[in-house]
Design a protein that fits this description.
Blueprint: H1 5-14, E1 21-26, E2 29-34, E3 37-43, E4 46-49, H2 53-59, E5 64-65, E6 74-77, H3 84-97
Antiparallel strand pairs: 1-2, 2-3, 3-4, 4-6, 5-6
Helix pairs in contact: 2-3
Length: 111
């Protein structure tokens, strides 16, 4: 089941204080970016934040689940999505601990 755009807009609005939050539709689901770095996924109208040590410590008792079959487990954010300040802080922590995205290689046309 694909996620609804309304849920994606709600979730990204809840984390807006973390930085510049954007989303990209991917195979019916969504990748969530903070300042250009992917920090979370939304699948089946559920928010999955990339796991980091700092994020796990911040949450305390956390639940991990794969966002889709075959994926690595991520931090499943349930009702805490409603706490805007808490979610923004989690996204900030996650952003700081994740590596910078690799630069995209330029491809030559015609080859």
């Amino acid at each position: 089941m694909a996620s609804k755009l309304e849920f994606v807009e709600y979730a990204t609005g809840q984390m807006e204080k973390a930085g510049t939050i954007t989303y990209l539709k991917m195979f019916g689901e969504y990748g969530i970016y903070c300042d250009g770095k992917i920090v979370a996924l939304i699948c089946d109208d559920q928010l999955f934040v990339k796991p980091t040590e700092g994020g796990k410590k911040f949450i305390g008792k956390y639940k991990e689940a794969p966002p889709y079959p075959g994926a690595k487990p991520s931090l499943l954010i349930g009702e805490k999505i409603e706490d805007k300040k808490w979610l923004s802080e989690l996204i900030k922590i996650t952003y700081k601990e994740l590596p910078e995205p690799k630069p995209k290689r330029k491809t030559k046309k015609g080859k």
